[in-house]
Amino acid sequence: MKKARSQKGSLCLSVNGSGTEVWIFRWWETSTDGRRVRRKRQVGTLDQYKTEEAAERAVRNWRLVLRANQDGAASGITMRALIGHFREKELVDKGEDGRAWSTRDRYEAYLNSWIEPRWGKEELTAIRAPWSRSGCVTSGRNRASGSGLNWSRPGGNRSRWHLPARPRSGI
Fold it and tell me: Are residues 41 and 12 in contact, defined by beta-carbon separation less than 8 angstroms?
C-alpha cells in the first residue's frame, strides 16, 4: 500500500524565454491513470514580487488548493470528459424513469453551443464558480423570472462569470 504524501510545492526564480526573471511555482500531480505529472505555474515577475517572501504569500492559496485536492479526485479531468459522462449516463432515453425528450434536446443544445466550446478543454479544477455577494450562486435569484441572471446592470453577468466584454460592432 502506498504511503499518502503531503506536498507544499516549490517556488524558484527562473528566466523565461524573453529573458525576464520570473517566479515559478512547481508541484507534482497524480493523473487519472495513476502517473505522476510535474506541473508548473508562473507566479509573477521579479519586479512584481521583489522578495521570495512576497512570492510565497502569492502562492499561499495555491498550496491550500493543492492540499485540498491531494486525493486527485477532480485533478486531470476535463470538462469534455465530464460532458461525455453526462451524455452517457444522464441523456440516454430511460423511458418514464428518465428525462423528457425536450429536456434532453435542450441540454444537448446548451452543451453543444455554449458549454463544450467554451470550457471543453479546461480541467475541472481550473473552472471557477461565479461570484456572488452572499457566497451562494442561487441565492440571488430574480423573483419575477426565477433566474439568477442580472441583465439590467451594465455588463450583465460577464463580470460574475469572468467572461470578456462583448465586442462592439459597427465602430
Answer: no
